[in-house]
Design a protein that fits this description.
By secondary structure, the protein is α+β, with helices and mostly antiparallel strands. It folds into 3 domains: 119 residues, Helix Hairpins; 147 residues, Cupredoxins -  blue copper proteins (Immunoglobulin-like); 105 residues, Cytochrome Bc1 Complex, Chain D, domain 2 (Orthogonal Bundle). Helices cover 44% and strands 16% of the residues. Strands 3-2-1-5-8 form a 5-stranded mixed sheet. A 5-stranded mixed sheet has the order 4-10-9-6-7.
Length: 386
């Protein structure tokens, strides 16, 4: 093979590397099949994206130079051309060069990376603080100092479609497995501080458009912050393998302009006050059963199944259960405090007194459990106070 053919082969190799680089970065943007890191909607995500692209380009240049030199050496200095390997133990100049250059490259990459990390950890001066608690398999959001708190779980449509033998085509469900019943609502243009923890196992709160994720660890509080620049709906998921229904724990954030956010916040406060007043009222059996059916579908059916059949041995059946058909006070205690040594979590701090009363009334009178018990919200409220 003459030198001209060798040069052609080398250029072809370099062209293949360049084409692969184009396919990875440029082609997806043109075809709509994005495979690169998203730019996001926050200042943090923009910084992280730019840092990602700079380092990626540095790595590509290094890769092209290294593989170009390697393939050129392989082609031009192969044994069939009569080349013999050089015999030497070391080269001081070469060793100095290939030590200094990588160090300089690492320093040039470390400076912007460290700057980005420092900014990411600075949650001071926040306009709003929200506590995020992960549960199997839902999120609780508490707007600290605003007296607003709620549970966010997989939407009813997605939850129904994901059930085995549901007969529902997931393709017909909008945002399948990426929608919730109560999204987290945040103001645009305001710095929001997050305090992230968990109640049972390790979770991870992750919305890709925000440019970061944080582990939610029981007994620890991790801090993070964001400042959303564009109104819209942003979706994410739990990014930690947290149990059998890990894939059914989405996150939805609605970013609203400040006036709309304040209106939403006022409506939530009014709703919380109205909910507190209903605890003292007398609920009819039909009303409790109707609400209990909805609460069960959202918070209980995941483990105990829609028909109350359970998933033995971790999640026992409620149909004919000695707990659901046994003494009422023991059933209340198990729901409020959980059951040690089992996967049953404590719902006392997770659901309202009204929701717990409704769920108990439903489970004690459904699936063939004909106890006739009607649990009033005030009974739950009085029990939790003691």
């Amino acid at each position: 093979m003459n030198r001209a053919n060798t040069v052609i082969i080398t250029l072809a190799v370099l062209a293949a590397v360049a084409a692969a680089f184009w396919l990875l970065l440029a082609a997806p943007a043109l075809t709509g099949n994005e495979i690169n890191m998203p730019v996001g909607v926050t200042a943090q995500s923009a910084i992280h994206y730019e840092l990602h692209m700079v380092i990626l380009k540095i790595c590509v240049v290094i890769g092209v130079l290294v593989f170009g030199a390697m393939f050129t050496s392989i082609v031009l200095h192969r044994k069939s051309r009569g080349h013999r390997p050089a015999e030497f133990s070391h080269n001081t100049s070469a060793e100095i060069v290939w030590t200094i250059i990588p160090v300089l490259i690492l320093i040039s990459m470390a400076i912007p990376a460290t700057t980005a990390l420092v900014k990411m950890e600075d949650a001071s001066g926040a306009d709003l603080t929200i506590k995020v608690t992960g549960f199997q398999w839902k999120w609780k959001y508490e707007y600290l100092d605003e007296e607003v708190a709620f549970i966010s779980a997989l939407s009813a449509d997605s939850n129904a479609a994901r059930q085995l033998r549901s007969g529902i085509d997931p393709a017909t469900v909008d945002n399948y497995l990426l929608d919730v019943d109560h999204p987290l609502v945040l103001p645009v243009g305001k710095k929001v501080r997050f305090l992230i923890t968990a109640d049972d196992v390790i979770h991870a709160w992750w919305v890709p458009d925000f440019g970061w994720k944080r582990d939610a660890i029981p007994g620890f509080v991790n801090e993070a912050w964001t400042l959303i620049e564009q109104p819209g709906t942003y979706r994410g998921q739990c990014a930690e393998l947290c149990g059998k229904d890990h894939g059914f724990m989405p996150i939805v954030v609605e970013a609203l302009p400040e006036p709309e956010f304040q209106a939403w916040l006022a409506a939530q406060k009014t709703r919380s006050q109205a909910e507190a007043q209903t605890v003292a009222s007398e609920w009819t059996t039909d009303r409790l059963l109707e609400r209990g059916r909805a609460v069960y579908a959202t918070h209980c059916a995941t483990c105990h199944q829609e028909d109350g059949g359970g998933l033995a041995p971790a999640f026992p059946a409620l149909a004919g259960s000695p707990v659901s058909t046994g003494p009422l006070q023991e059933n209340i205690r198990v729901v409020l405090e959980g059951r040690e040594g089992t996967a049953m979590q404590a719902f006392g701090d997770l659901l309202s007194a009204t929701d717990i009363a409704a769920a108990l009334t439903y489970t004690r009178n459904a699936f063939g459990n004909d106890t006739g018990d009607v649990v009033q919200p005030r009974t739950i409220a009085e029990t939790t106070q003691h």
